[in-house]
Amino acid sequence: MQPRGLLLLLALLLLAATAQAGKAKKDKAKKDGSECQDWRWGPCVPNSKDCGLGYREGTCGDESKRLKCKIPCNWKKKFGADCKYKFESWGGCSTQTGVKTRSGILKKALYNAQCEEIVYVSKPCTSKMKSKSKGES
């Protein structure tokens, strides 16, 4: 057999094997999948404490599922881990209250979460003045 014909045969065998593997993967997804389209998901519940790995339960008619999820440990508890916001820059420091504030507009609500459209956060002003270079005296 010529090298060109051998190469062509090898390419066809590889293509057939790839197509068969893709078909098996689709069949598996259909078995695990559900016909239901209107899933209602609950909040992510951490396994321990108030952040880290956990699970989220969902229901659709008589069916129920449990998905793994993760709550970052630096999440804003006030908003919930399923509400994603785009925040502005921090405002100036208020001399009366000693705090600075900023607002955030809802960017995405995951798993049908009930989220506020606009949220406001505040934090204490820093009292330290940061120096720009360490080498100067």
Keywords:
Midkine_heparin-bd_GF; Heparin-binding Growth Factor, Midkine, Chain A; heparin binding; disulfide bond; about 35% strand; three-stranded antiparallel beta sheet; about 140 residues; signal; alpha+beta
Characterize the structure shown.
Residues 23-79 form the Pleiotrophin/Midkine N-terminal domain. There is one protein chain. This protein has 137 residues and is an alpha+beta fold. Among the domains are: 36-72, Pleiotrophin/Midkine, N-terminal domain (Heparin-binding Growth Factor, Midkine, Chain A); 74-124, no CATH class. Helices cover 22% and strands 33% of the residues. It contains one helix and seven strands. It has one helix at residues 3-32, and strands at 40-41, 45-46, 52-60, 63-71, 83-87, 99-109, 118-124. The strands form two sheets. Strands 1, 2, 3 and 4 form a four-stranded antiparallel beta sheet that branches. Strand 6 (99-109) and strand 7 (118-124) form a beta hairpin. It is elongated, with a radius of gyration of 27 Å. The N and C termini lie far apart (81 Å).
- Mean pLDDT score: 78
Q: Distance between the terminal alpha carbons, to the nearest Å?
A: 81 Å
Q: In percent, how much strand structure appears in the residues? A: 25-35%
Question: How many DSSP helices?
Answer: 1
Rg over CA atoms, rounded to whole Å, is 27 Å
H and E string = HEEEEEEE
Instruction: Give the tally of β-strands.
Output: 7
Q: Which stretches are low in confidence, meaning pLDDT under 50 for 5 or more residues running?
A: 25-31
DSSP helix fraction:
10-25%
Helix/strand-derived class? alpha+beta
Domain Pleiotrophin/Midkine N-terminal: 23-79
Family: Belongs to the pleiotrophin family.
Main location: secreted
Signal peptide: 1-21
